[in-house]
Amino acid sequence: MFAPAASPDGYAQAIATRLLTRDPFGQWLGLELSEVRLGHCSLYFRVRPDMLNGFGALHGGVAFAAAESAFALACHTHGRQSVSLTATMDYLETGRLGDILLVDAREEILKEKVSTYLLRLTNQHGTLLALFKGTAYRTRHEL
């Protein structure tokens, strides 16, 4: 259980920070928090050689995993454990070695049992690489 922070956004930041520090896969990806508030999380990471596919482009699984991580953190900013129901991703452009990618998750719908988030994956030039949509089931378990 998290101690109450000075503000709801402070509480959201504390949750995201704690969850990300306990996430070995997110650490392997090199995910860093950019911005967190209720219903919103932005992460960034640098594309490394071990993240590339056989064509020298960012592997789609890495892009999806980074988006799924931002989705999960945004879901949990309200202090209730959530689990993914569905997630889809449209790949529009590719990331390249050395790119710094930003994954921005924004809450679109928050209901008692379900929430939906839209995410944008962009590079350091602002080029849109992918769009992600995730829907989560909100459990009754408080963080």
UniProtKB/TrEMBL annotation:
It comes from the Bacteria. Gene3D superfamilies: Hotdog Thioesterase. InterPro entries: Acyl-CoA_thioesterase_PaaI (IPR052723), HotDog_dom_sf (IPR029069), PAAI_dom (IPR003736), Thioestr_dom (IPR006683). Signal peptide: none annotated. Coiled coil: none annotated. CDD domains: PaaI_thioesterase (cd03443). Residues 55-129 form the Thioesterase domain. Keywords: Hydrolase. NCBIfam families: unchar_dom_1. This is Hotdog fold thioesterase. The lineage of its organism: Bacteria, Pseudomonadati, Bacteroidota, Cytophagia, Cytophagales.
